[in-house]
Amino acid sequence: MKSDFVLAFNEIVEARSLPKEVVIEAIEQALVSAYRRDANLSSSQQKIEAHIDAAGVPQILLEKEVVESITDSNTEVLLEEARQLYPEAKVGDMVMMPVQTTGRNFGRIAAQTAKQVILQRIREAERETLYEEFIEREGDLVTGTVQSVSPASITLTLLGRAEAIMPRAHQIPRERYKQHDKVRVYVVEVNKSTRGPQILVSRAHKDMLRRLFEYEVPEVYNGQVEIKSIAREPGYRSKVAVHALQEGIDPVGACVGMRGMRIQNIISELSGEKIDVIEWDPDPRRFIEKALSPARVAGVFLHEEVDQIRTATVIVPEDQLSQAIGREGQNARLAAKLTGWRIDIKSVTETARENLANIEQPPLSRLLQDSPKLVEEAKRILAKKDEDRAVMPEEYSTLTEFALLSEELKTTHLSRAAEERLAMLEAVRPLVPSAAFEMPIESLELADDIVRALGRIDNVGELMIRVLADEDYLAAVLKANNAGDDALEAIKYALDDLVLPEIMETDEAEPESDVEADVEVQAEAEIADVAPVETEDVEVEDADIESFIDDSELETLPPAFPEEPFEADIADKKSKKKQKSRKPVVPEYDELDEDLWLEEDDEELDSRKGKKKGGKSKKRHLVYDEDLGEMIAKRRRKGSRRRRDDMGFDDFD
């Protein structure tokens, strides 16, 4: 006959759906906690273990020290008694000795402690089991029961044991949910938390459509038909591109099924969402043409630019324009998502008018030489349309021919320009240090609008290449993306202040004192305060002024802070300064002697050659120090776009 312990143990295992090992471990930990409470060993560091044998008999073991005479029976055991279990035990050893007690001898508080520990451990084990179960089902479909509905989200019960949340953004817009409804959902994400697994489910996710095809279409499940891409607007319309991996299989027919039975089951599951199944094609032109179905396409022209989204110009007949665009642009949006191209849809008439307006400019001017009759005929047909006269099918074919031919010339010209620009970028790539390609674009601390405008340029090295190769094109890209008129100047200023990792190591070998840094900050602040007056930057060093100036010269020095200088005096001083020296940073430096330039040694130049564009180093610039009577090198301080605007340093380079 089974004991009460075994019966209770089996009941817990079956009710909680937990492994036996997990329940046994929870009971053993509960026995340890109960014994500590009963024996008043809660604060003791003494090791206690509990074991349950196959018959369900518990045993508690207490760590004790082997001694010759006992002074405390709770922590010590005689050598003879210890050798009964551990024959090789010696005096001073620590051994685990069984305690002559059972759970029936525990007091009320100890029993309550054991109960709480068992419940806590079982709950934790349940949470862990649920998490492990649903983490394996992440990305799969499960059926849930609606538990509660709120404006923000819906709470569902999955498999009767776990709760899941379906936010409003993951719901199909036109669906209405009621309590106790059975809903099939897609498991998007499973996270672990102290209150159990947090499960996020969705019915609007595009991969739910993929899973439904796998369940309904055996060819997709077996891998004979592959789903290449999916574009979906939940509740309204979806496009699915499929490709046959085995010869002799019609991918579209396999997904649609006999009399549309397979696709109809998927449509019913998604509350009537329309689904277009098209065949994937490796040729982007044909793939885009199929993606725009059911509209008929006259021509597709592709253009790929280095830093811009791939663009496809699609020309359609006049009567197919609205169908190609779709209701509120839905068909064009889905086709763009499905193919990964930006699609620009134009009618034949619109394309012909646009190209005729620029017919005298290259590359369209070639048509005037190669096909003058076609150009004249296109002008005549457009004039006829402007007069609301009927256009014959033959004439419309001629107009279509002109539109396609002129668009082909434009696309070829753009592609050739893109290839030349790519060659320019590759030519200057060796000039950029490799460390710059490992620095993210965020390290330049540019404004958010500039970072967004840069788009695909995600590291400093690529940005330096574009600045070196073609500043005008980069400026045009920034302007087209609404980055502001000063975006290019801000980028150049940030690159000038950039310190690459190897340059930073060199600078650490030559640290400057904190006093000099503070003086430079104060000097820049004074320059900002007197912006209307043209002044020169002077660096003050921690040197004794008297060592450079005689006592007689000190008597003739002007006061440091004159009371109210007249404008004439200021102009006179400015003219004397200009006669005495000019800043090397000003382009007009013909009057300077060559020995005023600061020549850096080869090692320092090699260590800093990767800092600037094309290997130039602008970390320091030369200024004239009136007190020292010589040119000194002043460090450029890193500044932000806002500080430059405030200090009026836009032209200071």
Concise overview:
The chain has 653 residues and is α+β, with helices and mostly antiparallel strands. Strand 1 and strand 2 form a beta hairpin.
Task: Explain how this protein is built.
This protein is of the alpha+beta class and 653 residues long. Among the domains are: 121 residues, N Utilization Substance Protein A, Chain:P, domain 4 (2-Layer Sandwich), CATH 3.30.1480; 68 residues, OB fold (Dihydrolipoamide Acetyltransferase, E2P); 68 residues, no CATH class; 136 residues, no CATH class. Helices cover 43% and strands 17% of the residues. The chain contains 25 helices and 17 strands. A five-stranded mixed beta barrel has the order 5-6-7-9-8. Strands 1, 2, 3 and 4 form a four-stranded mixed sheet that branches. A hairpin with a 3-residue loop joins strand 6 and strand 7. Helix 9 runs antiparallel to helix 11, helix 12 packs across helix 14 and helix 14 crosses helix 15. The chain starts with a helix and ends in a 6-residue tail after the last helix. The C terminus is likely disordered.
